[in-house]
Design a protein that fits this description.
The chain is mainly β. The chain is 0% helix and 51% strand. The chain contains no helices and 11 strands. The strands form 2 sheets. Strands 2, 4, 5, 6, 9, 10 and 11 form a 7-stranded mixed β-sheet that branches. A 4-stranded antiparallel β-sheet has the order 1-3-8-7, with no helix packed on it. A hairpin with a 6-residue loop joins strand 4 and strand 5. It is globular and about 40 Å long.
Length: 116
């Protein structure tokens, strides 16, 4: 299974970006993580195996939305009202077990930089 993340870029505070994660095959639990320089990786949003349940980190609640297009096997992260502290490499991850907690596959990451 391959995950291909895209959509990052350089934006100003208050702008929006939409990240995409294309999954080569299969159906999985999906998540977006991010990692800023010198900081630990943190989970931003999670989408259940069937796509019906989403959860968000408190620091993006109300600003970010995760969704899935099952036909194209693509998971999106819509990011609105971006802040400089959102600057990080964003990675998508997939979990094989619908009820599990492990993330078995990772994409390569896409850089998001938010200027003030």
């Amino acid at each position: 299974v391959q995950l291909q993340a895209s959509g990052g870029g350089l934006v100003q505070a208050g702008d929006s970006l939409r990240l995409s994660c294309a999954v080569s095959s299969g159906q999985y639990r999906m998540a977006w993580f991010r990692q800023a320089p010198g900081k630990e990786r943190e989970r931003v949003a999670r989408l259940s195996w069937n796509g019906y349940r989403t959860t968000y980190a408190e620091f993006v609640q109300g600003r970010f939305t995760v969704s899935r297009d099952s036909a194209s096997r693509t998971v999106y992260l819509q990011m609105n009202n971006l802040k400089p502290e959102d600057t990080a490499v964003y990675l998508c991850a997939a979990g094989s077990d619908p009820l599990g907690t492990d993330w078995n596959y990772w994409g390569q990451g896409t850089q998001v930089t938010v200027s003030s």
